[in-house]
TrEMBL record, chains A, B, C:
This is P2X purinoceptor. ATP binds at residues 73-75, 198, 303-305, 323. The lineage of its organism: Eukaryota, Metazoa, Chordata, Craniata, Vertebrata. Residues 386-422 are annotated as: Disordered. It comes from Coregonus suidteri. GO terms for biological process: calcium ion transmembrane transport; response to ATP.
Amino acid sequence: MASNSWKSNVILNVLSFLDYKTGKFIIAKSKRVGTLYRVIQLSIIGYLVGYVFLSKKSYQAKEESIQSAVITKLKGVAVTNTSESGRMVWGPVDYVIPPQGEAVFFIVTNFIETPNQKLGNCAESPGVLDGFCKIDEDCAEGESVKAGHGVRTGRCLRDNGKSSGTCEIYSWCPVESCHKPQDGHERMSMLREAENFTIYIKNFIRFPKFSFSKANIQDTDDKFHLKKCHYDELLEPYCPIFRLGDIVNQTGHSFQDMALKGGSIGILIGWNCDLDRDHSECQPRYTFTRIDVNGSSESSGFNFRHARRYKSDSGQIYRTQFKVYGIRINIIVHGMAGKFCIIPTVINIGSGLACIGGGAWFCDWILLYLMKKREFYKHWKFESVKKKDSNSPNITEHHNSPTEDTKQTPEEQQLTDLSTEF
Amino acid sequence: MASNSWKSNVILNVLSFLDYKTGKFIIAKSKRVGTLYRVIQLSIIGYLVGYVFLSKKSYQAKEESIQSAVITKLKGVAVTNTSESGRMVWGPVDYVIPPQGEAVFFIVTNFIETPNQKLGNCAESPGVLDGFCKIDEDCAEGESVKAGHGVRTGRCLRDNGKSSGTCEIYSWCPVESCHKPQDGHERMSMLREAENFTIYIKNFIRFPKFSFSKANIQDTDDKFHLKKCHYDELLEPYCPIFRLGDIVNQTGHSFQDMALKGGSIGILIGWNCDLDRDHSECQPRYTFTRIDVNGSSESSGFNFRHARRYKSDSGQIYRTQFKVYGIRINIIVHGMAGKFCIIPTVINIGSGLACIGGGAWFCDWILLYLMKKREFYKHWKFESVKKKDSNSPNITEHHNSPTEDTKQTPEEQQLTDLSTEF
Amino acid sequence: MASNSWKSNVILNVLSFLDYKTGKFIIAKSKRVGTLYRVIQLSIIGYLVGYVFLSKKSYQAKEESIQSAVITKLKGVAVTNTSESGRMVWGPVDYVIPPQGEAVFFIVTNFIETPNQKLGNCAESPGVLDGFCKIDEDCAEGESVKAGHGVRTGRCLRDNGKSSGTCEIYSWCPVESCHKPQDGHERMSMLREAENFTIYIKNFIRFPKFSFSKANIQDTDDKFHLKKCHYDELLEPYCPIFRLGDIVNQTGHSFQDMALKGGSIGILIGWNCDLDRDHSECQPRYTFTRIDVNGSSESSGFNFRHARRYKSDSGQIYRTQFKVYGIRINIIVHGMAGKFCIIPTVINIGSGLACIGGGAWFCDWILLYLMKKREFYKHWKFESVKKKDSNSPNITEHHNSPTEDTKQTPEEQQLTDLSTEF
């Protein structure tokens, strides 16, 4: 090829770069396929607009990792009267463990007190399986009692006449009495007033991706209202002060049962924020669930032991051990924020359009392989470039092969008749 | 159709499977639409390359759920001098609650001490609204004082001559004096030296999806440097030792105010890691924010009460109650890791290409419905397959209908003239 | 144009809306490009089906923000014998800090006891650099000793004859002896039995997006089994009771070392749930890692101080300070749930199809710019709409320009010859 022709070629190519090239279409007057295609087209567009964008808001970038800080404060007083320590007043200082207002805390509603424990030898409590013995040999010295209170001294203590007893152990004596709190006269939990304790929850959240911060206490709220309001799902959905009794009831459990054996409750604070809307619409939703029951209630209940140590003037340490039953509150904050973002929008639109293209491909496939007139349509859709001397692609022999020409033409004729009748 | 023809048909289909079929295009010499199309094309490619990939790194799979473990250790000594307990030394053992180095902890900077409380009867503090009374009937026996310190005994205590007083309650007596810490001579917080306390933060993180772990303490750091360095945003951005005073200042609040009434501070540790880069580039960023002020400063301030119990040799329990004000530190770790992943890459490229296709559709629409020469273009773009005996699609009558032929041809003639003049 | 023609035009347009318009293709009998295209097509489809859907399950909506509540309970008894406080029994009450069964807790395995500390003046411990002095002037009164135990009184205490000593400080005296726990006879940690302590972990999780909840304790498990089983990676992968010794061993560290100097261990509970499967297949996986060692073991080890306060009958406060070394357990729950969702499915399919389209574009590019017969293919693919009076696009001069016709035709002729030889 001559170089000057190439030059012009280049120039013309540059020019023709701005020509608009658009695909050539053939109109297959098949109303069936046409309708099918339109249906596909419309259903995808409908899905895109109705479901993806309006319902699911997929035009938004989502943030699921929420930052949260929780401060809690309890109020309420209870009085107990026990044989061990007489009449006692319980304030938040006494019944909240730990006292420093964390997101996970424990409220004492019931307890077994074992006062004046001293280090020494005494009998393992009969409640401990591993503590039983018939003879001293059952109590190997120095071995600790499995799930027990101390280490064996080597002696087996039997009440006179009895054939079996429990090993003597070196431990904090006397060991805790193993009676369960629901035995006998103690069927009721001891801090009955716990039902009226109030929990004040301050929750501060932040969505780092959008650097959006909010608290569950509104700036606008008048402090006086905050002082006296109580959360109520319908009346006071945004009041951050909760009655313990209400919380337990909302989980569908009885307060007295729970107070007796203890339990673990989750206060879920959900923040679902559409940051395209006004920020004031981003509000917490509180839900309450008991998290220590999964089917079998046996595994439920919550208690732990702690001790207070004292020293006599003689310098000897003694302690009061408490086995406390109560309600463990677990404040779990979760949330999701969404804000318009171009990338997910383009992705959804783009893939939607591509699926419409896929629909077209599907319709082509029906047109060219299932329809009665498929050969005819194939013939029109596909133009063979083998020949040069044909006047028009339409009269070039069928693309499959020249050998068919003779067969083809009549067939096509008949197809055309059909098509005109159609 | 004869079966042998079918056979050849099949064979030829198999062969023609490897023929490359490409769409036939018409060149509409409309520079306007052509330019529009090129603009759309280029802008989408630019958006894809520049914004999606270079700026937003959307070729990466992202992980937002970071695993983190935090260990903290405080150093510093303060001395206080109070009427109640004289000169006292405060070490970390005394002012850090809880002491075991957690991610959420409290530093005492101020306190009200109420020593030698014993269980008994005394007057409710005048600070409690619900405690006021004029006559004994105002103090129903056994009822607990709302937001108060104990349960009413049924008597109303009035200083002689006064018409009103407060109910007598059974409680830990004497009840806490209600003077606020900022009254009178105590305008200053008590642990002034708290400003110089240092917090050593060890933070260990992990991105489970990429099983990538890191700590905020570099292996390379010489221990001696770690011992003496202090965090500074510019000079020492990676030193994990923080002066309490600096932290408060960075939140834009005055240390003395905060130390006086207490407050809650969040130390945000942000890990934004591009795991395609070298791991050493994955470094924490520390930011400090006060999280207990949202607009109204009334809701701010932080304090709680705790008590220390003692027993006299007579076995009677008495306690010292502390109402402690201080700074609650909340170490919040967040982060995001990204690593190249084929799926999001394909999704973004694919949807981008699809949008270019959408642009073509849009340009077609303009070409065929808005341009002056639309009929002419339609005629070329769409080839009717109704007729068989036409020499060429170009001369078949306009696709709309035969009835228009007569009208059409002159129109097209004229259009063509325009097009040639164009 | 006449209005009636417009009317009919409109009607016909409405009718022709249901005509199926499909792109016209030309068959370029280039087996090379055809094969390339098929390869691209198949590889994308293979990637989509095999990798995206089968392997990566990208047809699912994913949730990474898991809600979790953890309850822990320890069992085991240890005995220690120290000069300071003689023979002592350690139960969970004593060695678990804090005692209330949280997700982050500390197990005492070793300790230094400093009994009977009283507020007063004494010498700073020689272990503190900042405490050294030669003359009283080195001990400015009122200044606190950096990283020390108290505030200087202004005197420098020197053993007789010695040239240097340590400042006298006002502090809890005597100050803690600075001997490390691994010195001399104490090479072994004191709570050796800690190796056999057991940790019972209850973990309750929830995926808010799918409102799916589960616990690591199965409803079906018989309680008796739970009582006696021990976690074992192979035999008992779902038993929630862990031997402390096993945990440490699984991290690849020696228990005795760790018990001696302390350390921090992470128990990772991973929930990877395919919610399209049966819920019973959603099971936790436990992994154990030591999180306080990053390369340099110097930074490892974990300890903190706490004190127990007592009051003599004279009312003077004295305390016993414990520097406790031990194992800090950090239970970190992470997880991901996936459930079929139409949106990601459409996105992946759509973008896959679009990429196939991109492949076609790429093949076109090869066909039209790299192949020997490119001009010939261009000529067929692009149909110029400039002329009206041509019988067929195929014979219209080459789209580049009329000026080339003369040059073109022979060239094309020759190309055709090639193509027929091809």
